[in-house]
Amino acid sequence: MEKTPGTRPKIAMLGRGNSGKNNVRTAHAPGARAAVHDADADLAARFAADTGAKAPGWQAILAGKSIDGVILATSAGPRAALARAALDAGKHVLVEKPLALSPNDANEVVAHAKRVGWIVRTGEKHREVGTDKLEIVK
Questions:
Q1: 97 is catalytic
Q2: Neighbours of 3 (CB within 10 A)
Q3: CATH number of the domain encompassing residue 87
Q4: Contact present, 64 and 92 (Cβ < 8 Å)
Q5: Using one digit for the tens of pLDDT, what is the confidence trace for 52-101?
């Protein structure tokens, strides 16, 4: 992913999750063209309308060349598989916790990220500072 210094990455969100509304707003910061998908198409359409994001299917999001990274806020079951699919599609991935339902699946996602050269990170809430801290680091 070649980016011009100072440009914002384009972020998409798969799944609403408990913090989905905040994630959509964060991903749709000025300059970040966000997309959102949820198993509940009506919910995804409402989120998209509220934020100006697009609401294509998740396969279209992963295939999209303009999307640099995805936030996975789905139910926990499909997260590991979706994370691997996003990494295979050349996307950085922020996964709401838990990353996977088993330690083996979580370790495989991390190993897969290393193999393909993209970043995977789980979301963290830092209550001691009173803010959500979502960061992607290498």
A1: yes
A2: 10
A3: 3.40.50.720
A4: no
A5: 778 888 899 899 888 889 989 888 899 999 999 999 999 999 998 889 99
In the chain, how many domains are there?
Answer: 1
What confidence category does residue 51 fall into, taking pLDDT thresholds of 50, 70 and 90? Answer: confident
Residue 8 lies in a domain: no
Lowest mean pLDDT among 40-49, 61-70, 77-86, 107-116: 40-49
Backbone angles phi, psi at 41, to 5 degrees: -60, -35
Q: How far apart are CA 91 and CA 89, in angstroms?
A: 6
CA pair distance 138, 118, nearest whole angstrom? 9
Q: Which domain holds residue 47?
A: 17-125
Classify residue 12: in a domain, yes or no: no
Give the phi and the psi of residue 36 in degrees, each rounded to 5. Answer: -140, 140
User: Which helix (H) or strand (E) covers residue 82, if one does?
Assistant: helix 79-88
Length of the chain: 138
Of 97, 114, 133, 138, the catalytic one is 97
Is 77 part of any domain?
yes
